[in-house]
Amino acid sequence: MSKRIAIIGTGPSGMAAAQVLASDGYNVTMYEKHDRPGGILMYGIPQMKLNKNNVLKKAQILQDLGVEFILNTNVTKEDVANTISSEYDAVLLATGAEKARDISIDGRQLSNIFFAMEYLTDNTKHLLDGSPLKIDAKGKNVVIIGGGDTANDCVATALSQGAKSVRQLEISPKDQPRKKNSYDFDEDEIRLYQKTAVKFIDCDGEGCVAKVVTDQVDFVRDENGTKIEFNNLNGEMEADLVFVAIGFLGPLEEALDAFDVELDRSVHNKDTDVFTTNKENIFICGDARRGQSLIKWAIGEGKMAALAIERYLQ
Ligand SMILES: Cc1cc2nc3c(=O)[nH]c(=O)nc-3n(C[C@H](O)[C@H](O)[C@H](O)COP(=O)(O)OP(=O)(O)OC[C@H]3O[C@@H](n4cnc5c(N)ncnc54)[C@H](O)[C@@H]3O)c2cc1C
């Protein structure tokens, strides 16, 4: 009987691993906490940039190879992890790097301040299912903290929803090398450079955000690297909605804890190809292993992790 492998997470790394393993005759089951497969390809990157039918087609190819998908299943409990670990010959953690970096400033507890992924997921679910938007930028003043790809996805989404105004706070200087965004909005109209949020102001004691206080920062380079200096040149901007898009810290601990896996950052990082963990039959790949990266790296990691699992099982 062919050996059984469980993959936790159906993003590009998990799917790439599943394709190799299923093609090589292994019996593969994928667990996914969301209602659709694809990871960030499904619920992070907006539909206007990546058509979700293409992601579902990829999942169908895997199903045709015999891969089973178990959706709506968040594997975070120790007893569930123990059952999976004992029922399968190997387990691959491909759970991504979903732990968002937060901004710890006054007023962070106010409502209508969301992490980027909450917003992007909500909008995609709305487009695919017709479910009402929980976070709707229509007619609102939107401030996005962060200047990377995820922040740009939020800008494009807020514009598509009909926001009244969209401003993006980018902490680095304008002259830094960066690629143009993949949308057709004019960055210079939306993005403010060397600016960050220093305080959120309440809407008259109602508990929701109304304004963002910003500061102009300088990047000071010395022999110890780059330092950010605040200038206390505070300004204010209207904000009915704020999206925090300042990066990701790594995988959520819940799946790692459930499987009793400890990440060792000296071996699990972008410069290595170590897919094993402290648990003999449990492997890890993709953003969960190397930190938030790019689709091409996730796919490469999935393929290499699959080969590492095959070596272990042989
Ligand atoms: C908003 C955004 C836009 C991006 N745009 C681009 C881009 O344009 N181009 C590019 O190259 N890269 C982009 N990236 C990066 C790229 O999407 C990621 O590097 C890639 O998706 C990582 O793949 P992965 O399979 O490791 O993890 P993910 O895609 O994050 O997939 C992890 C999966 O695991 C599931 N999961 C997590 N925990 C559990 C659990 N306990 N139980 C069950 N399921 C679980 C998650 O729901 C998810 O489906 C973007 C990232 C973000 C956040």
UniProtKB/TrEMBL annotation:
Domain annotation FAD/NAD(P)-binding: ranges: 4-302
SUPFAM superfamilies per UniProt: FAD/NAD(P)-binding domain, Nucleotide-binding domain
One Gene Ontology MF term: oxidoreductase activity
InterPro entries on file: FAD/NAD-bd_sf (IPR036188), FAD/NAD-binding_dom (IPR023753), Glutamate_Synthase (IPR051394)
Gene3D superfamilies in alphabetical order: FAD/NAD(P)-binding domain (3.50.50.60)
Transmembrane spans: none
Pfam annotation, one family: Pyr_redox_2
Highest rank taxon of the organism: Bacteria
PANTHER family listed in its UniProt record: GLUTAMATE SYNTHASE [NADPH] SMALL CHAIN
Protein name, as recorded: FAD-dependent oxidoreductase
Organism: Candidatus Xianfuyuplasma coldseepsis
